[in-house]
Amino acid sequence: xxxxxxxxxxxxxxxxxxxxxxxxxxxxxxxxxxxxxxxxxxxxxxxxxxxxxxxxxxxxxxxxxxxxxxxxxxxxxxxxxxxxxxxxxxxxxxxxxxxxxxxxxxxxxxxxxxxxxxxxxxxxxxxxxxxxxxxxxxxxxxxxxxxxxxxxxxxxxxxxxxxxxxxxxxxxxxxxxxxxxxxxxxxxxxxxxxxxxxxxxxxxxxxxxxxxxxxxxxxxxxxxxxxxxxxxxxxxxxxxxxxxxxxxxxxxxxxxxxxxxxxxxxxxxxxxxxxxxxxxxxxxxxxxxxxxxxxxxxxxxxxxxxxxxxxxxxxxxxxxxxxxxxxxxxxxxxxxxxxxxxxxxxxxxxxxxxxxxxxxxxxxxxxxxxxxxxxxxxxxxxxxxxxxxxxxxxxxxxxxxxxxxxxxxxxxxxx
Amino acid sequence: xxxxxxxxxxxxxxxxxxxxxxxxxxxxxxxxxxxxxxxxxxxxxxxxxxxxxxxxxxxxxxxxxxxxxxxxxxxxxxxxxxxxxxxxxxxxxxxxxxxxxxxxxxxxxxxxxxxxxxxxxxxxxxxxxxxxxxxxxxxxxxxxxxxxxxxxxxxxxxxxxxxxxxxxxxxxxxxxxxxxxxxxxxxxxxxxxxxxxxxxxxxxxxxxxxxxxxxxxxxxxxxxxxxxxxxxxxxxxxxxxxxxxxxxxxxxxxxxxxxxxxxxxxxxxxxxxxxxxxxxxxxxxxxxxxxxxxxxxxxxxxxxxxxxxxxxxxxxxxxxxxxxxxxxxxxxxxxxxxxxxxxxxxxxxxxxxxxxxxxxxxxxxxxxxxxxxxxxxxxxxxxxxxxxxxxxxxxxxxxxxxxxxxxxxxxxxxxxxxxxxxxxxxxxxxxxxxxxxxxxxxxxxxxxxxxxxxxxxxxxxxxxxxxxxxxxxxxxxxxxxxxxxxxxxxxxxxxxxxxxxxxxxxxxxxxxxxxxxxxxxxxxxxxxxxxxxxxxxx
Lengths: 415, 538
Prior knowledge:
The structure holds two protein chains of two kinds. Chain A has one domain (14-414). By secondary structure, chain A is mostly helical. Chain A starts with 6 loop residues before the first helix and ends with a helix. Chain A is built from 17 helices and four strands. By secondary structure, chain B is of the alpha/beta class. Chain B has a six-stranded mixed beta sheet. In chain B, strands 18-21-22-15-23-24 form a six-stranded mixed beta sheet. The chains are: A mainly alpha, B alpha/beta. The A-B interface holds A 1, 265, 267-270, 272-273, 275-276, 279-280, 282-284, 286-289, 411 and B 80-81, 84, 92, 96-101, 105, 109-112, 114, 120, 125-130, 158, 286.
């Protein structure tokens, strides 16, 4: 079969990503912000958001679309975070306990979500979205009425005196909290981080080559890219772009581990089942795969990962809005992965990371671009919210449209 | 217990509620033979196979009577997965392949070869890493055995249908311990050369000792491929034959048979053939499961034309295509006037009415009253039964009541009154409401699709009599599409038989059974009789 280099189809298939790149460039040029500042902001945002976006991949592969119910995973994490603050376990220990506590809570929620979504096959996305809103009500009941009233909280500042329920903001920056528990472990300037990463990649490539798990060509290319990026960094202009960036190594390592997990899982029997179920439930069922169970596992893993992602997010922020921090999680993460070129049927690590970069780049530059262009930062703010909904709508429309195109093409071929 | 048969199904009886779909059917298959299973639709082929595979639909409806023996031992097959473990494989009519997977991944789906890793030792077998190397080696072997030299790492997406069929077969062969393979209409989607190749692969498989059950409606392929034949008719065993001891005409006769007497008796008359009422040329209809391919047909004014054929061969596509309910292309002329194809509104306005086979889905508004159902189309299309008040329109209740009551008497619709909900009527009476609605449009031409499906004998007779009356008294031209040949034979002037989306032949109702049988399997009876050999009609 001959593969045409069809410029139009490349454009069409990556319309969302290309549009976003253009938008980012335009906004960047009008924002008046310096590149070093943008880079500084971007790395900060990447470190706290990438994990949660990566948590969306598994349900997409399993054919359940974007898991908007990760909002509920975030709620699980916040419940865990509240109790860790109450108990006063600060620092890395507190983070660890919170992460550990998140697992059973999020897994339980994931189990409920998965069972519900199994009853509404084909409508998982709208189901997850509405489920998130519904769970928000229960969450408020829990935090306004049960915690602090039925179950008293003793830690200072968790309950406002003379009021009922948990305080609006939970502060993690005191000695009871776990602000920067992960980020602060090992923070290095960008250059150092780059050398360490490239060095590690090169060593792994060589080891894999020696163990004969990687082809010679691939190993050489990998080492070459690592060396080239280090060399590129030697140019003063390039280095100056990243002068403000401090890299939280451990956080990025955790993100890297999740990427490896996603790839590794796909090479197992379970991963094969996810992919089979994602493509066609009937065929998967006919070959003896338990479709419902596979989907349930995908949602449970995704919910737990989302919970961890939210913990990484809040430890970076240093505090969180008790009643609002989880609300937009699903929407923003979903928009980010779509921006990276994923669809509601296909997604991988690279798309999630690229999407994360582009989406947050726009978030950084849009308000000041709005201010410079229209004289009001609120317009830029308005613009970025508008864009995130727009991206999701556009992705859904394109998915439907591609379905129609495919059908037409198949018809044309059969004749 | 040693036995010469790999599979024996003994005295199988299966009822769905009151309805007996299989009664006392037996069948035995030897290792290494190709056993053809023949029968019209509704003859019970698929029910028999569902029993063999332990499909949930069987267990959920009270199981079955009789015995299934594998290698002489009682095989209690609980689920399709269980059947697979016991060595029964199926090559599906609808491909069970994942387009985004490679051929290897498809062949090995859910039977992946894995090796343990660190995580799987803790968390269980499901996390073992795939061993692509040995998987692809197995796939290669299976592909070679069906004579396919395609790369095993090619994705299934974009493969020609013929290739997909062979990948399916390769997958079944790859399963260890397969002793029985069922091919369900495997040649339906293949080109002629692919079909020939498939039959030779089937023979190879049989030679290796695996028994093959071959379900098809193509009689010539049965003659070419099989060793023995079981023929079902109306849920009963019609005959078992050795292929060497029978011929195609006998098979056709056995398949169709005489199903009792005529439903109604009519006086003989000469077939009207003065004016062409409906002229169909090169009709293509894209109706899922009922494709029509380049069909040309003339219907004469004043006749009742029957359209018959097996299920899924496109007979239902004809009325649905002409009425524009599915995507269609071609030329249609009604009484010499060209008709815009694919436009339901235009067809209705031109004076064609249709009684749909999908009574509850397309035919009726179940939550509406009988009278509203009857006038619905006339009101929407012709703007009848309405009061006009400037730009507004109101239903003309008294006129509607009048026509509804008249139809209820004329067609003998059994109901409490014109305001009863259509959904609460029995099947036969619902059908009559559908006919009443079509008549309300005062059509010049009527399509009736599967008018007697799912209604009892008495109601069947009434519906058919109504149609005949409309034809004889009002001179209405009627095209009736039905799976029940006997019904077509009792009221039609001519019967067109459709196979694989094409018109095979138009036969008189009194033509012999064998002719109908041959036509339904795509062989023009005349050609066959002239040549005296199995000619394939193209």
